[in-house]
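Entry for the shared binder. Reason: the reviewer on the internal report wants the predicted structure included alongside the sequence.
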Amino acid sequence: MSSVGKEISDYKMNAYSKIHIPLIDEVIEDMIAIGKTISDSKTMPKPNDDVMAVFVENNNRDLEFYGFVGDGAGTIDTEGNLLHIGDTIEMHSKDGHTSRQYVFRILPKQKSIDFFNGKLVMPYKKLSKNVCSQDHGIFHFVSCLDEYNKSIDNLL
């Protein structure tokens, strides 16, 4: 792993290390640090891609951190595919109803995927980074590079 990749990984692990589901304010410093690392790497021959963080609006309209797009979610679909944050899976209930769900750090649980025969239908690389809505709430995809650039603008 390159030093840039290691640095980004360390910042991600710090964001994930919160015991509860952290709000955007609790992980923004890590996101800005990731954005700075990416920005600094732009001078290298092969720059890193931007890192997108996923947030969900809770009942108070606060944004809760649900992971970084592309990171492993710690779950697999019923066909054995490792699921990543931002993947879309199709869930099939016993009554024939199907629904699509995004995969995030804590949703859906492996037990639900197995019970509802969840299968990967769209990988995170094809995910639209626009605001998405689902039963669990409204999802926001926030660019770490944009947050870093905003932090610089705020200093000026």
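Summary line for the report: Residues 24-41 form the longest helix (18 residues).
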